[in-house]
Amino acid sequence: MTPLPERKQLLGYFNEAVEAGARKAKAAEIMGLSLRTLQRWQQPEALPVDGRTLRTAAPAHKFSEVEREAVLTVANSEEFKDVSPHQIVPVLAERGEYLASEASFYRILRQANQMNHRQAQVQQPRSKPKALMATAPNQIYSWDITYLATPVAGLFFYLYLFMAIFSRKIVGWQVYHEQNSTYASDLITDICQREQIQPQQLILHSDNGRPMKGATTLATLQKLGVVPSLSRPAVSNDNPYSESLFKTLKYHPKYPSQPFEDIGKARLWVEDFVQWYNYDHRHSNIQFVTPIQRHAGEDREILIKRQAVYNAAKAKNPARWSQDTRNWEWQLVE
User: Fold this and answer.
1) How many Å apart are CA 143 and CA 175, to the nearest integer?
2) Number of domains in the chain
3) 180 and 71 in one domain?
4) Rounded distance, CA 44 to CA 55, Å?
5) Does residue 105 sit in the same domain as residue 144?
6) How many other C-beta atoms lie within 10 A of the C-beta of residue 178?
7) Are residues 214 and 274 in the same domain?
8) For the chain, what percent of residues have pLDDT higher than 90?
9) Range of the domain at 178
10) In the chain, N or C terminus with fewer CB closer than 10 Å?
């Protein structure tokens, strides 16, 4: 029996000869084939069909319509309507619920054209200073100042924001009319008292801005026993923790599209953001627990619970896993 690729090639030669004016019988004779054979090969049913394309049986592990609707219902709920799957899945696992993997959530939402509004913030890799590694909540802080727009062109409010690198918790913040080291010093002093920071316990990292290097700030750090750490001059990514935090703030779905009318409204909005960020936001760099959970040491138990949920889900429907379940192990991060 003539193989399919060779059969298609011979038919191509035959059709090309006929289109050029050759008689069919003569063309077949020259090719060493009968005209009847070539005519039979030209019939669609004469060509073998890949049986896999005719398969109608759905895979045993395919999501049913009920399961798909359950995923969409949760994703479109008031709690998760503006949230991407990498935030939804950890919350459900923390509650002891498993509907689908993160990849399945993404696939179902894409098929339903419901992903665009969930992608305002694009994840981008950021280099981190290798010297900074925290193994406990109050070992290393990162801080910076960002602009908040006002109705007056060229005039801004200034948000001072301090974060614990180990837990990503915002440990202190304030909005001021201007940048100066006195405001920074007062805020640092307040944070150290509230977090009960002992002398030589804390390293405070920042960029090379004027308030960070001001004499008042440095004198306050020396008095508190806080070790200053500054980014290298002209290296913009030496403080990625604060940069990433500011990006999260300004890409938040509720970040105002219009300038803040006054400093009071700016402070109220930041207060709500800090509450959400510390208590509700599942941070991707700390295994999608909240900063407060990490800071308080509650994250280990939460991750153990999530792993148990996934192990149970795999045992119930092993066909949906080609490899191990998602890794929920606790880990140190830079």
Assistant:
1) 13
2) 3
3) no
4) 19
5) no
6) 10
7) yes
8) 44
9) 140-281
10) N
